Amino acid sequence: MNILSYNPGHDGSIAYLKDGKLMFSLEAEKNSNYRYSPISSHDVIRILGEIEEVPDLICTGGWWPREEPVLGISSHVGYRGIENNGINIRKHKMLGKNVTHFSSSHERSHIFCAFGMSNLPKGIPFYALLWEGAIGSFYEIDSEMNIKLIGDVLNEPGNRYTSIYGLADPSFPKDAPFSRFSDAGKLMALASFSKRSVPTLEEEKLMDFLLNSPHVQLSLYNDLKNSTYYNIGVNDTEFRNFAGIFSDRIFDVFYQFAKLNMTKKLPLVIAGGCGLNCDWNTKWKQTGLFSDVFVPPVANDSGSAIGTAIDAQFHFTGNPKINWDVYSGEYFDDNCVIDTDRYDIYDSSDDKVAELLADNLILAWVNGKYEIGPRALGNRSIIAAPFVEETKIRLNQIKQREQFRPIAPVCLEEDATEWFGCNNPSPYMLFTFTANTDSLAAVTHVNKTARIQTVSSFSNKNLFNLLTAFKKRTGYGVLCNTSLNFNGRGFINKLDDLSLYTIKHNLDGFVVDGKIYLLKSSTFYQKHQEKLSI
After folding, report:
1. Which of 19, 164, 189, 376 has the fewest C-beta atoms under 10 angstroms from its C-beta?
2. Per-residue pLDDT for 70 more than 80?
């Protein structure tokens, strides 16, 4: 059965399953498009060029109603709904062939995505946590994939969480129609600066206001003009303390509910944008309430199309599991013209790249298909040596982002216990660990934590070989790893964009298609050349 599925909302994506295998997931923001973009016509045209036959099923994920007043019958179902009888199935024609159109709720898409991509076997009962901008709920799913709502714990947890960043940030317009999706990641970074766990009386009142209102409306800022944190700036020490306190409070709301209502020691799958919060994911593991915890790399809405496709597959075949690989995006487009006179170009080898990195050059590293989900996992990455604070500062300058943002390490799986106390594979950069050394300053956050990605020869052979060569040269199988993208855009996926980024953002070069391109104007490359000539 061939299934083509798309997510109609933000973080738009189109996924294609063929006989239970994820063939690709094209994400609208990738290829230097705006972050969080919905699917557009050119995405559809690209997809039609990728598939070789008319699919058996075309799936649309659920979303907020917007068509009924005009069309009478919507092409997709609603945002919420967990019952099987809420599924919409109709017949269509596509290129002269009869196809079936399937639509199920956005809520179901997240649950099916998380379970279908997990290593949990078909038929095992499990719990699910879906927390995101709108929904904050726990579920129990039986062996037949019947979903039971345990409880709506707190609606709009993601929006409530990000609201305090907009409160403190004077650059955020308090009358904006929407909050910024990007603020969630920034707040996660700021929370790690917190050195105080006890809230003040004013902070208790603020949290009560933010967590107990029926909905999070941006008009809430009108009621908070007298708050200490109104436009105080995100670098304020007390606001950073409050960021940690507020983060802990939201987690505790869900934890207290789970401790009381989820006592069967079942495994837990986590879905929704809040599933990208590594600190919260780690806390769920540490609670001891669950036999296992799994978070997919597409926990946010970028996985919704995959989830709807899995839901459709289950409906027609009884199978809620898929085979998949995190590197299921599009191949890199090198069919572009760049000014090669600006580069010295070498044949690439792991030893040569390791030598450059050890001499403090910062390089873009491109391989194969791009990663699905928002985290760069070694195919569309910027990499660097992990040893000194100055590298982190330079990387944040290259990426044109705030200096309080941490840089993540990518680490050989075999060395993860020694350097980070990570005893199990963590291939998707979704959990935090504590650094066991002061030697990795560029990838150690202010509170000594690190959001690591572990790599084996199986998970990413090219990156594994590079890390092995770097370890042979330096003693550490660890590198800085951050996403290769223009600020506010998805991953770079074209050679001309990559060259432009290298020149404009002061990278020292890039590695792609078996070649190393080193920018002649780079002072770090020039110093490296001087050392070799001595």
Report:
1. 19
2. no
